[in-house]
Amino acid sequence: MGISPFDIAGxxxxxxxxxxxxxxxxxxxxxxxxxxxxxxxxxxxxAALRMSELEGxxxxxxxxxxxxxxxxxRTLVDExxxxxxxxxxxxxxxxxxxxxxxxxxxLEGWQRVIDINLTGLAFVSKAAAxxxxxxxxGGKIINIASIDALHPSMVGLAAYDxxxxxxxxxxRALALExxxxxxxxxxxxxxxxxxxxxxxxxxxxxxxAEEMDAMLEQFAAAIPLRRMGEPDDIANVTLFxxxxxxxxxxxxxxxxxxxxxxx
Length: 263
Ligand code: NAD
Prior knowledge:
Rossmann fold; 8 helices; globular; binds nicotinamide-adenine-dinucleotide
């Protein structure tokens, strides 16, 4: 019997923003598939707590970190190596989506979104890629973008949409550069996914809870598959992109939105 093309047993992975939402869904799938995962999250306490919910066979470790901090990438690589001996997979999932119409947007608010969603992702990728090149066994970098990288979904997300458009182009540029090292770089564009983040009233939106519910209902009604996504919908595609099954795919964006962009 041949080795499964989906086998990632024994690989070492870093998942940013891994303490909840899509990130934790990804952590759960990778650990279940036998990878050892470093859960990296701004909320280090929650990241540590959630390790007890994982059942293996892969192992987990956790670290509290802001991906936009100077040298966050090096810290994550060092921590992953200290725990598991290598860095084979990086899932750049940490991201924020505060709402603000551009007419009211502060420079600080704009910069925070770009710093976390784009610059943090780029420099964590740089550190992981340097390590993967040194190891000489290839690697997998997976960036969680958004359908907003292709099409704005609502008013109030100019900074966010710009950051995710940047993630898409960064994915392609890095894939071009790292191809000769057998490191693939791909992105996933989730549509509306039920997470702790989307359940919270969107900060700065100025909407009441009722208005927010109505907006989400309207969003879900426009999804051809007639449901919001779940973190596992994104985690399964992440697992594919982390596995040898996707070895000849690089610089790609996979839209996982229940068909939302079709309408
Ligand atoms: P969430 O808010 O539920 O969880 C995000 C996690 O990231 C939290 O654990 C948070 O502590 C962590 N985090 C935030 N800032 C961080 C930082 N600076 N450094 C390290 N960790 C940080 O979010 P989610 O809904 O699961 O979204 C995850 C990713 O998916 C984001 O990049 C988001 O833009 C993207 N996305 C989400 C949706 C959706 O509908 N939920 C749709 C498209 C794209």
